[in-house]
Each structure stands twice: as structure tokens, then as C-alpha cells.
Amino acid sequence: MDTFLQSKQEEMLQLIEKLVNIDSGSDDKEGVDKIGAILKEKYEELGFVVEVREEENQGNHLLIQHKEAVDPKIILVAHMDTVFPKGTVAKRPFSIEGDRAYGPGVVDMKSSQVELLYALKALVTTGTPGFENVQIILNSDEEIGSPTSRALIEEKSQGKEYALIVEPARKDGSLVSSRRGGGRYKLVVKGKAAHSGIEPQKGRSAIEELAHKIIQLHGLTDHEKGISVNVGLIEGGSAVNTVSPRAVAHVDIRISEMEQAEMLQQKIKEICSTTEVSGTQVTMKGKISRPPMEKTEQSESLLQVIQEVGKEIGIDVQDTSTGGGSDASFTAANGVATVDGLGPVGGNAHSEDEYLEIPTLIERTLLLAKTIQRLTEDE
């Protein structure tokens, strides 16, 4: 497989360029579906059956497995959407400088899409076991929390033994063995407007009440336990000389263990059940939308298999924890041994400087292909 993949690097880079140069932000259904149509054709050429799960607003999801597959035990998940708005490609299309490729979504995760495709292509072409033991979900909304694909991922991961998530590897090449879970809340404070010069005593400041809430919410943060609460966006008021009648806070929370979720939600509810500024009212909406991906004995065993495969092909595979979310949380919460970060190495995802380390493309594709082979042969 090594020789086969080495001969395909230029072909892989050409496909990455093609995918990167299509805008496919999470809300750009047309663009995401263009990506899906290209990948659907590529998989069908390899003998895979592709089921299109239609979505009205977000892009369609693809459910893929080989025509010879019978009860596959490995689920692979990769998203087709990016965080970049329509028009980004026109401003900074795919480019290569030295050993790095640049462009919107180049590493998160259009290179991963190509890696996954070619890992399976290597298995099929060389007749190596494994291609018939995988079920693949290519989803369209991971960057916005997977609201329409979560149920599909949870459904299809039931009964699977292994979940391989091909988000990009970390900058140092590490895989991801645990992730913090999290969610979003929206607090709306209702006050009473009044002229701040003529009759301020008649007003009830929503902004003042929100200030108290922000301090109380931030007080829930406990970095040692992996809990963080961040009010990242606020809005309120109607004029500088008016006591604010309304204020809003958007809150991001992160947890490291699922048992922290109920505790944190209860404390947020308690904070919002009382007011410091008489005459104001607080309403709260939100939830924890991603469970944490916790490192388990099963995922540790899966990681060890990947590390053994890495040694065989000359890669020192390390693992790390990260605060960012991914679809790995859903498979892990289903009790499936899960390892994330199996894509190529790169960095600065979600920014104008996002890049792919080109020399890692073939080695990580080989690592993924041989991991699928090993897990299949070990059954």
C-alpha cells in the first residue's frame, strides 16, 4: 500500500485543491452538496454504495459502505462543511508554499476527506481486508454542532466496535484521545427604560443586572476540573442616555466529564432564578449539546493498536486532550471505542492562515488504511 499511495500524492493534492476551491460553509447548502456530489462519485467508482440523506437547509449527509459489506464494525466520520462564508475562496483560493498547502478548510477537513477516500482506495486496489468492514458518515454541519447529523451518527454507531474520526491531527502530530463537551446558553434580561438624566430612578437597568449575571456565571469556571463558563458575546441598551430595557448574553460552557453537566446546568438555573436589580426579569435557554469524549479503557486499547501500526510504518504516534468539540463525542458517548485526530497534520484551523503539512498526507493515509486493516484482521 505504501508504494501505491506514494504514487498518488500529486493526484491527492489535485483533489484537495478542487475541494478547497469550493465554498462549503455550514450554511452554504449548495456548496456542501457540490462537495458531496464529487465524493459520492469517487466512492461509487470504488464499489461503495452511497446513500444520500436529504436535508432542507444544511447540506445533505452521505452514508457509505462497500457493496460487499456485511455488518461492518468500524464507523468513520468526516465533515464536509467549513466555518468560512461564501466568497472566501475568491479572496484566497488553494495555494502551495514550500511543504505547506493553504486555503479555507484545507486541513479542517478537506485534506482529511481525501485521506479517507485514498485510504479506502488503497485497501480496495490492493485487495487488502478492511474496506468491507467500514461504514462512513460524511456530514454537513459539524462546524455548527451537528444539529441534523447527530441522530444519524448516534444511530449508526450503535453496535460498532471502533470509531475513527478523521479531524486533523494536532500541530505536533498528536491524535486526540479526549475532548471536552459543551453547550451554549442565551440569557435575556428584561428591564425598564427611563431617561438617564430626567428620571433615572424610574428605570430598571437590564445591563446592570446582566453584569451581575456575568460575574456569577464566570465564577462557575473551575480549570482544575476542566469546567469553563465564558460569556463571549453581550448586547443591550437602546441609547447612551437611556436606562437599558433589555440585555442579552451568549454563554459558552465546557465540561470534561458527563457528570459535570447536570451540576453545571443546575447552578446556571439557580443563578438565573433570582435578580440583583429589583424589577428586572431573566430568562434562560440552552443546553449541553455535545457530551465530552472521555478516555476509556476501550479507547486506550484502540489507541495502542494505532500506535503499534504507527511504529511499523515509522510514525511515533502520541495522543493529547483538547477543549474543542467534534463528532467523536457522539460515538464515545455511545460506548464505542473512539480515537480522533486521524487526519493529516496541519494548523491554524478556522483562520486565514490555515495550513496542511503536505509531507504528512501520505503517511497519515497509510496509518489510517493499515489501522482499518489491523482492526479487521484482529476480529
From TrEMBL:
Residues 178-276 form the Peptidase M20 dimerisation domain. SUPFAM superfamilies: Bacterial exopeptidase dimerisation domain (SSF55031), Zn-dependent exopeptidases (SSF53187). The keyword Metal-binding applies. The keyword Protein transport does not apply. Keywords: Hydrolase, Metal-binding. Pfam families: M20_dimer, Peptidase_M20. This is M20 family metallopeptidase.
